[in-house]
């Protein structure tokens, strides 16, 4: 047994004979976690990958691993948990990684590239007869925000998510009609045919997902629904790590969903080879050699002196 003082570097060596020794067993330091990548490309748009994440790591570690796997910058990755009923939560970098993926599968979204908006001609603007919260908060809305969308159908116990989750980059001053058209354009791959919505808000409702406040719906009568104060609160609470974003749930009634989408359920995701490889590696019983046990037993450690010595 060798003991070295960290201050004076004096070393003390002792030799103690013994006939029996208790060795520690090295424990596994990682666990398998599947993450569904939602990439901004035509091929491999939805792919589930398997990762060996550290047991004592944080979401920041997961963000770095997902960025390497998807070949995107880490600051562009949005991590969120989804369930068969919709969004659960977004994952922030300081969060512990031990609980990630337990409540629902983890999705990693890559935002669409930012495009510079063309200048709009200024003209006379008429105020609505009834003032709304968004009008008072944002007189001249500008900029673009990221929206995470998922589609649900039914209510109560029958509530279910269907179709692929989406990520959009929208202007804050977009109208309800234009927002509805943009959402339908993202869903054109799973729609039965071309849809021409009649009237405002005739096809679905949009609810702000998450948060402790009561359910907040965007109003079809609001000229700028994305300027609602609840949107600002959601942006502030989106957490550290990744671009700020807002989670929205698009709610469809059963008849409209069946007419436009048929019996479509959740998105079809293809598993990468890493999913099987990580499940196989972590599904096996963890084994170690006697030499690894001795290495852990003889590993150098810092011994703290008791108070007052």
TrEMBL record:
<dbReference type="InterPro" id="IPR050185">
    <property type="entry name" value="Ub_carboxyl-term_hydrolase"/>
</dbReference>
<protein>
    <submittedName>
        <fullName>UBP43 hydrolase</fullName>
    </submittedName>
</protein>
<dbReference type="GO" id="GO:0016787">
    <property type="term" value="F:hydrolase activity"/>
</dbReference>
<dbReference type="InterPro" id="IPR038765">
    <property type="entry name" value="Papain-like_cys_pep_sf"/>
</dbReference>
<feature type="region of interest" description="Disordered">
    <location>
        <begin position="108"/>
        <end position="134"/>
    </location>
</feature>
<keyword id="KW-0378">Hydrolase</keyword>
């Amino acid at each position: 047994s060798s003991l070295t003082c960290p201050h004076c570097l004096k070393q003390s060596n002792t030799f103690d004979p013994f006939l029996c020794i208790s060795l520690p067993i090295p424990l596994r330091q990682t666990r398998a976690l599947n993450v569904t990548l939602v990439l901004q490309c035509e091929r491999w748009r939805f792919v589930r990958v398997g990762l060996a994440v550290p047991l004592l790591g944080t979401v920041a570690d997961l963000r770095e691993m997902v960025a390497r796997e998807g070949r995107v910058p880490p600051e562009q990755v949005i991590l969120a948990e989804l369930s068969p009923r919709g969004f659960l939560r977004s994952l922030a970098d300081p969060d512990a990684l031990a609980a990630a993926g337990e409540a629902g599968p983890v999705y990693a979204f890559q935002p669409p590239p930012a495009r510079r908006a063309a200048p709009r001609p200024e003209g006379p603007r008429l105020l609505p007869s009834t003032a709304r919260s968004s009008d008072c908060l944002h007189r001249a809305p500008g900029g673009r925000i990221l929206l995470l969308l998922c589609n649900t159908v039914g209510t109560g116990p029958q509530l279910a998510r269907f179709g692929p989750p989406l990520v959009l980059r929208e202007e804050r001053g977009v109208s309800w009609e234009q927002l509805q058209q943009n959402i339908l354009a993202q869903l054109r791959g799973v729609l039965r045919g071309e849809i021409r919505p009649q009237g405002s808000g005739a096809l679905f409702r949009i609810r702000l997902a998450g948060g402790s406040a009561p359910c907040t719906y965007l109003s079809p009568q609001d000229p700028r629904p994305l300027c609602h104060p609840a949107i600002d609160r959601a942006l502030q609470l989106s957490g550290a790590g990744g671009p700020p974003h807002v989670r929205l749930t698009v709610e469809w009634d059963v008849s409209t969903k069946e007419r436009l989408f048929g019996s479509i359920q959740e998105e079809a995701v293809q598993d990468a080879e890493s999913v099987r490889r990580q499940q196989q590696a972590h599904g096996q019983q963890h084994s170690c050699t006697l030499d690894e046990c001795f290495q852990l037993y003889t590993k150098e450690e810092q011994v703290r002196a008791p108070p007052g010595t």
